UniProtKB/TrEMBL annotation:
InterPro entries: Compl_C2_B, Peptidase_S1_PA, Peptidase_S1_PA_chymotrypsin, Peptidase_S1A, Sushi/SCR/CCP_sf, Sushi_SCR_CCP_dom, Trypsin_dom, TRYPSIN_HIS. Residues 28-92, 93-152, 158-215 form the Sushi domain. One of its GO terms (cellular component) is cell surface. It is found in: Cell surface; Secreted. It comes from Coregonus suidteri. Residues 262-460 form the VWFA domain. CDD domains: CCP, Tryp_SPc, vWA_complement_factors. Its cofactor is Mn(2+); Mg(2+). This is C3/C5 convertase.
Length: 773
């Protein structure tokens, strides 16, 4: 660091040449001299031009002091101007003072608490501790755990529980009866986020949310945001998901809510957000809307970027009526948007809100009845700083009026305004008045940078909390057994001990909370349900079977007199479990054809969807890529194998023809009687080499992923022409040779069987909703 030159600010050259008599704007630049920082470095958003922001960076656990950023003014000087003292340096992150604990003691007592400093809390006698008994100061400026509270053991009179005093805060008010009010303020240098005042309600709950005191350098972690934002947005998504109801005649109907959720996303791309961060921010938006779509909701989107002007990437008005914009198009619009920071010297936050208000007005004017039914979710990404257009507070008030229609209480849930504070310097005071305030819900988050934001949206809608969405899964794995489980949470293993003591192994798939779908040939006539062990994944979730149901037309000896030793048509079976499995991130049913759940996964919601539409969507190409799971003995792990369904007539013919040369008893003459239309064919090396199934893979799902987040099963692995892996599963994933073929039962051909049991409404289990046609 060059401290010797630190304060020798060079004079700015202000000679402006005259050009044909016209004065040209002076190209004044800021100087980099002496801008260094002890312990860290800085970056510039636009070199040393007017409007450039100098951003200081420190290692984790440190923050820049006294300035976080400086901006280059027209005059060629920095604001705030660098000064000799205090010297610009990286300081250790501090956590707010925890000594405000009432009726207890805090150890150790210090004037300041730094990263990794630990504190312990003890209550005086007659009081007992709630919250954390020990806390550690973390690198994002917050204490670990929850606020420690010492409450009177004999506090029976109070309606509400003592909510404690958060670190760094002072509280006035100490009675907790109905209508009692508490107010909070933070120590100097700290901003209060959450509720400044809270009132004890008859329900025993405090209004608002717990206040917390943030330094400028305090941030929310991805995990904190995931939990708070995830649960709030999930709520909105569930409100907008289709619901089943009964009509006046008691007939089941589905109330379609497609188009009843409006999501407005506005992202600040002014200089206050670094240029290189833009792509990460865009990715975060893409992740968010892709995740949202994995719920069976079809929101209308408004997506805009703003700086001194507003750039509309997706216009919500394009979603009106039947012409809904598909998600692919929304994503493509985002991809095609070119970031150009050159002319963005200003930030007009108000204009962004005004654009949204205008879009709302158009919708309301077009159909007020419809507008009243729509939920509006606004998600802003900004640092809160604006230098044009004035404060957005009035506009936000108008947005509230437009949605609430003078019935705030009743219509409160129709509007949510979230702000993600992103940037090197975030202006809390300006952002807080804009966001929705609702008891127990957080709508304002402070994110350290765009990378952290992306990570946040990766996990934001925790799949584990969502029951009833078939095929939903994590879309990445890191090769560990656990992540493979989360990617294929429907995968089941079946061990069947036959009467003669021989054990056979098959694969299966969880298709509802009570049923496993597998192959009929895994069972013999005399098999007993109590001899079946179903393991759902490596987690050893074992459920006893109560019933084995084979397809009624399955008969392995059915063509014996024609010289066919084994005949596998209708090779499907269901295992009914004794009780429902619990849905979690590790265990969730796969989608199967011709159910409403699958229409939702394929986003066919909204129309009178049919089985045919699903088939056309899933099996539309001459060759369709599918996958199945096989066990890799070497790595002792389940692996995904890939193959291609040959669907086009000639391709399929040549795929199945092989059976006539490879299998005893099959001839070109009887080929189509043995390999009936119910079979799907994979294998061979054309157009590229397929993986081939091994013996233990029988009964497993042949599946397709849709949209990254949903999985639909199209077939059940039945039999093959050639055993390429004698002795069961292979050491490595087995690759097909020219002569090997696999045949799978096409689930679209066995829907009546599936519907009869899985859709049975008279049983003690939740039926799947099958489509009428
Ligand atoms: C608190 O952290 C500071 C900075 O790391 C350290 O110097 C100090 O010893 C710590 N105090 C305690 C009590 O651990
Ligand atoms: C307005 O919306 C309602 C509710 O969705 C709908 O029933 C009605 O047909 C719409 N009116 C017009 C004119 O589009």
């Amino acid at each position: 660091m060059e401290f010797s030159v630190l304060w020798r600010l060079s004079a700015v050259l202000l000679l402006c040449p005259l050009y044909m008599g016209v004065g040209v704007l002076c190209e004044v630049t800021c100087s980099e001299e002496g801008m260094g920082m002890e312990g860290g470095h800085y970056t510039l958003t636009k070199q040393l031009e007017y409007g450039s922001i100098l951003i200081y960076h420190c290692p984790d656990g440190y923050y820049p002091f006294p300035a976080l950023t400086r901006s280059c003014l027209k005059s060629g000087t920095w604001k705030p101007a660098p000064r000799r003292r205090p010297i610009q340096q990286c300081r250790m992150v501090e956590c707010p003072n925890p000594l405000g604990l009432e009726s207890g003691s805090v150890l150790p007592v210090q004037s300041q608490y730094f990263v990794n400093n630990k504190t312990t809390y003890e209550c005086y006698s007659g009081y007992s501790l709630r919250g954390s008994a020990s806390r550690v100061c973390q690198s994002h400026g917050k204490w670990s755990g929850g606020t420690p509270i010492c409450s009177r053991d004999s506090g029976g009179e109070d309606r509400c529980a003592d909510p404690g005093i958060p670190a760094g805060a002072r509280r006035s008010g100490s009675s907790f009866g109905i209508d009692d009010e508490l107010t909070y303020r933070c120590d100097d240098g700290l901003n209060l986020l959450g509720s400044k005042t809270r009132v004890c309600q008859e329900s025993g709950q405090w209004t608002g949310t717990e206040p917390s005191c943030y330094y400028k350098h305090t941030y929310d972690t991805a995990l904190e945001i995931t939990e708070a934002f995830g649960s709030a947005i999930r709520e909105s998504l569930q409100l907008a998901a289709p619901i089943d109801d009964t009509d006046q005649e008691g007939k089941k109907i589905t109330i379609d809510k497609a188009g009843k959720l409006n999501i407005y996303i506005a992202m600040d791309i002014s200089d206050s957000i670094e240029e290189k961060e833009f792509d990460k921010a865009r990715n975060a938006v893409k992740k968010l809307i892709t995740k949202v779509s994995s719920f069976s909701v079809s929101p209308n989107y408004e997506i805009l970027f703003f700086a001194s002007d507003v750039l509309e990437v997706v216009n919500i008005i394009d979603f009106s009526g039947e012409n809904r914009k598909p998600l692919e198009e929304v994503l493509a619009n985002l991809d095609n948007f070119k970031y150009d920071a050159r002319d963005n010297v200003g930030t007009n936050l108000n204009l962004a809100f005004r654009t949204i208000l205008e879009r709302m007005a158009i919708q309301k004017q077009r159909n007020e009845t419809l507008f009243k039914e729509v939920y509006h979710v606004l998600i802003f990404f900004t640092d809160g700083a604006y230098n044009m257009g004035g404060s957005p507070e009035n506009t936000v008030a108008k947005i509230r009026e437009a949605v609430h229609m003078n019935k705030k209480e009743e219509r409160d849930k129709y509007l949510d305004i979230y702000v993600f504070g992103v940037g090197s310097e975030i202006f809390d005071e300006d952002i807080m008045p804009l966001v929705t305030k609702r008891d127990g819900e957080k709508h304002y988050f402070k994110v350290k940078d765009a990378k952290e934001l992306e990570k946040t949206f990766d996990d934001i809608i925790d799949e584990s909390k969502v029951v009833g969405l078939c095929g939903l899964h994590r879309n990445y794995d890191d090769g560990t057994a656990n992540s493979i489980r989360q990617r294929y949470p429907w995968m089941a293993r079946i061990e069947n001990t036959h009467e003669d003591g021989i054990i056979s192994k098959c694969m299966g798939s969880l298709v509802s909370r009570r049923f496993i779908l597998t192959a009929a040939h895994c069972f013999k006539f005399a098999d007993k349900p109590d001899k079946i062990r179903v393991t759902i994944g490596k987690l050893q979730v074992v459920n006893g079977a109560s019933r084995i149901i084979l397809h009624p037309d399955y008969n392995i000896r059915g063509k014996e007199k024609d010289g066919i030793k084994e005949f596998y048509d209708y090779d499907v079976a269901l295992i009914q479990l004794e009780k429902d499995v619990d849905i979690s991130i590790n265990i969730r049913p796969i989608c199967i054809p011709c159910t409403k759940e699958t229409s939702g996964a394929l986003r066919l919601v909204g129309e009178a969807t049919t089985c045919k539409q699903q088939e056309q969507l899933l099996l539309k190409n001459p060759i369709e890529e599918v996958s199945f799971i096989s066990f890799d003995k070497k790595d002792q792990m389940d692996q995904r194998s890939d193959a291609k369904l040959k669907l086009e007539v000639q391709l399929r013919d040549s795929c199945i023809r092989l059976a006539a040369t490879q299998v005893d008893g099959i001839t070109p003459l009887n080929l189509k009687d043995v390999v009936t239309d119910n079979f799907l064919c994979t294998g061979g090396r054309q157009p590229t080499r397929d993986n081939i199934a091994c013996k233990g893979d029988s009964g497993g799902a042949v599946f397709k992923d849709y949209d990254d987040y949903r999985t639909i099963q199209v077939g059940v692995i039945s039999w093959g022409t050639k055993d390429l892996c004698p002795g069961g599963s292979s050491d490595v994933q087995q690759e097909s040779d020219d002569e090997s073929r696999d045949f799978h039962i096409n689930l679209f051909k066995v829907v009546p069987f599936l519907k009869k049991y899985l859709g049975d409404e008279s049983q003690d289990y939740e039926p799947l909703q099958f489509l009428d046609k």
